């Protein structure tokens, strides 16, 4: 069975039990990605207690609802914050020990750096999680904003079980077309387990055109390769990839008119896939 992934949360005001309830019952999601800010103002490095509370709110409700939840260390420079990351993931893994529906994404979108750096970071963080969560799925990033999975496939992490690699794309972006799919196809051919932990219907900056033809091509690729995915994102910003129009309720219960074209498309796709 292919899981239908949905996330990630865009603004803190949507990190509520009622929103998790709504996307579970109405969108029919089977997972939500809880992205935790790290470096921006009020991020984890500045206000760890606040960020932990937000994440735990989403995780706790997802567990109650019986869906998967992906805890995302949403950092482009995780190699500079190893000590903080170790402490956070050890804390989360200890708190949610025994909860099989918790997934750990340890580095969101490494920038243009070497795979060796990403790999070295991962082999330091993974053991902290495995102290308390020996079997939970762990998602490892790849260079170039989670696009260079072909490079990771040439030298994958060894010595740990239940490890997958994140792959990101923005379906309408001119730089995210067949050439990018070819990179992922090569990784898959080499046996690298992939999870699309983030993708959007627009372009990589969150805006741009919602090109339905290009989105259709990517969706077909996801289905053909039986890949799980998380769509970016639940927010009411003025962005192409935002699922909500400004002013939409922070408690769910959204009408079709409150959902953007992206929101209505993603809701329809997930509800359809949930029946298959």
How would you portray this structure in words?
With about 280 residues, the chain is an alpha/beta fold. Helix content is about 40%, strand content about 15%. The chain has helices spanning about 15-25, 50-65, 80-95, 115-130, 145, 150-155, 180-190, 210-225, 260-275, and strands spanning about 5, 30-35, 70-75, 100-105, 140, 165-170, 195-200, 230. An eight-stranded parallel β-sheet has the order 1-2-3-4-5-6-7-8. Strand 2 (about 30-35), helix 2 and strand 3 (about 70-75) form a beta-alpha-beta unit. Helix 3 (about 80-95) runs parallel beside helix 4 (about 115-130). It is globular. It starts with 5 loop residues before the first strand and ends with a helix. The model is unreliable at about 1-5 (pLDDT under 50).
List its traits.
276 residues; globular; disordered N terminus; alpha/beta; 8 strands; 8-stranded parallel sheet
Mean pLDDT: 93
Low-confidence stretches: 1-7
Strand order of the largest sheet: 1-2-3-4-5-6-7-8
Radius of gyration: 17 Å
Number of helices: 9
User: N-to-C SSE series?
Assistant: EHEHEHEHEHHEHEHEH
Brief sketch in words of this structure:
With 276 residues, the protein is an alpha/beta fold. Helices cover 39% and strands 15% of the residues.
Give the topology.
Elements: E1 6-7, H1 17-27, E2 31-37, H2 48-65, E3 68-74, H3 82-95, E4 102-105, H4 115-130, E5 138-140, H5 143-146, H6 149-154, E6 163-170, H7 178-189, E7 194-200, H8 212-224, E8 229-231, H9 261-274
Parallel strand pairs: 1-2, 2-3, 3-4, 4-5, 5-6, 6-7, 7-8
């Amino acid at each position: 069975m292919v899981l239908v992934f949905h996330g990630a949360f865009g603004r803190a005001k949507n990190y509520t039990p009622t929103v998790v309830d709504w996307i579970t019952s109405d969108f029919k999601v089977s997972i939500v990605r809880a992205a935790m800010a790290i470096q921006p103002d009020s991020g984890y490095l500045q206000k760890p207690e606040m960020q932990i509370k937000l994440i735990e709110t989403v995780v706790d409700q997802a567990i109650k609802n019986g869906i998967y939840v992906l805890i995302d260390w949403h950092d482009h420079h995780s190699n500079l914050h190893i000590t903080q990351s170790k402490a956070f993931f050890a804390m989360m893994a200890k708190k949610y020990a025994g909860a099989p529906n918790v997934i750990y994404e340890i580095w969101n979108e490494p920038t243009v750096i070497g795979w060796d750096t990403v790999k070295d970071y991962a082999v330091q963080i993974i053991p902290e999680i495995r102290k308390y969560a020996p079997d939970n799925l762990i998602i490892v990033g790849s260079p170039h904003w989670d696009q260079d999975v072909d490079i990771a496939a040439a030298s994958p992490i060894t010595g740990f079980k239940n490890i997958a690699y994140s792959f990101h794309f923005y379906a309408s972006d001119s730089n995210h077309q067949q050439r990018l799919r070819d990179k992922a196809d090569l990784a898959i051919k080499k046996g690298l387990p992939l999870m699309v932990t983030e993708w959007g219907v627009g372009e990589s900056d969150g805006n741009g055109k919602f090109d339905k033809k290009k989105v259709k091509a990517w969706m077909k690729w996801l289905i053909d390769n039986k890949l799980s995915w998380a769509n970016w994102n639940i927010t009411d910003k003025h962005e192409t990839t935002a699922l909500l129009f400004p002013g939409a309720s922070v408690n769910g219960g959204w009408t079709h008119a409150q959902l953007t074209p992206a929101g209505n498309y993603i809701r329809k796709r997930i509800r359809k896939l949930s029946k298959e």
